[in-house]
Automatic annotation (TrEMBL):
Stored PROSITE patterns: ENOYL_COA_HYDRATASE
Gene3D superfamilies in UniProt: 2-enoyl-CoA Hydratase, Chain A, domain 1 (3.90.226.10), Lyase 2-enoyl-coa Hydratase, Chain A, domain 2 (1.10.12.10)
Keyword Lyase (UniProt): yes
Any single GO BP term: fatty acid beta-oxidation
Protein name from the UniProt record: enoyl-CoA hydratase
Organism: Marinicauda pacifica
Pfam families: ECH_1
């Protein structure tokens, strides 16, 4: 499908979505969020895709919701028809592994979308922040919930109440990002990670993601029980037989994603 505000491509079993509104630093306007949801739906439906990388430009992953559009909203119009809800849900509920490759600004909704991905690989110039308070609002796409889970209460309060940005080093120290890489290496590292994930069994990778995400929603004993059930069910897959047989035969596994 041809998009206007994003670009998509596939490389092997990896799908890449590049946010592409350079003049507005990839601000998340209604059109972009709609296209992002559509692109994710396409990749989710495509069984040949095992992992997705979501990225932006060198200067900006995304500078947040489009403030010029937000300015026109009122309570009732947002309440009746929240244009972001579809996108936020589409990223947060995306079932396959998805990596955010962040360079430059990841602010407001941009930071929130990055946090909805499974992990963040950041370039050294990345800047994360929830500056909504400067606009007279608070984060509205999961920031007040996901940021404290990622970096702890103190830093999340600091970020959301002062609106200050966190540089890439601080973000790595705080656990918001999994890897910090030179700007020029960002896509190579992200693609290498995505290819590694996509080479595993897709159903097993999806179940692993589902199980880790459960850890943020339920208590430990329920979580352990959930994990055990899913683990047992994996012995019904062809890929479990293949993975263990390959280890015993001292050869590489050839997963069929079944
Ligand atoms: N919405 C709309 N347009 C934006 C934008 C945004 N979030 N961020 C940047 N732009 C536009 C600017 O208006 C400017 O457009 P013009 O050239 O037409 O004036 C263009 O992008 C370039 O921006 P700057 O000239 O400001 O670039 P800069 O390098 O001087 O500053 C910046 C970069 C610090 C990121 C600054 O643009 C900025 O502070 N942006 C706003 C960040 C923000 O507040 N984000 C939160 C949005 S609200 C939100 O996301 C709510 C939610 O939780 C869902």
């Amino acid at each position: 499908m041809a998009y206007k505000t994003i670009q998509t491509k596939t490389e092997g079993r990896v799908g890449v979505i590049t946010l592409d509104r350079p003049k507005a630093l990839n601000a998340l306007c209604d059109e972009l969020t709609g296209e992002l949801a559509d692109a994710l739906a396409e990749f989710e439906a495509n069984e040949d895709i095992g992992c997705v990388v979501l990225t932006g430009s060198t200067k900006a992953f995304a500078a947040g919701a489009d403030i010029k559009e937000l300015q026109e909203k009122d309570f009732v119009s947002l309440y009746l028809n929240d244009p972001f809800a579809k996108t936020w849900e589409s990223v947060a509920r995306f079932r396959k592994p998805i990596i955010a490759a962040v360079s430059g600004y990841a602010l407001g909704g941009g930071c929130e979308i990055a946090m909805m991905c499974d992990f963040i690989i950041a370039a050294e110039n990345a800047k994360f922040g929830q500056p909504e308070i400067n606009l007279g609002v608070m984060p509205g796409a999961g920031g007040t919930q996901r940021l404290p889970r990622a970096v702890g209460k103190s830093k999340a309060m600091d970020m959301c109440l002062t609106g200050r940005m966190m540089n890439a080093e601080e973000a790595e120290r705080a656990g918001l990002v999994s890897r910090l890489v030179p700007v020029d290496d960002l896509m190579d590292v992200a693609m290498e990670a995505a290819e590694a994930i996509a080479s595993k069994s897709l159903p097993i990778a999806m179940m692993t993601k589902e199980s880790i995400n459960r850890a943020f929603e339920i208590g430990l004993s329920e979580g352990i029980r959930f994990e055990r059930r899913v683990f047992h069910s994996q012995f019904a897959t062809e890929d479990q037989s293949e993975g263990m047989a390959a280890f015993a035969d001292k050869r590489a596994a050839h997963f069929k994603h079944r």
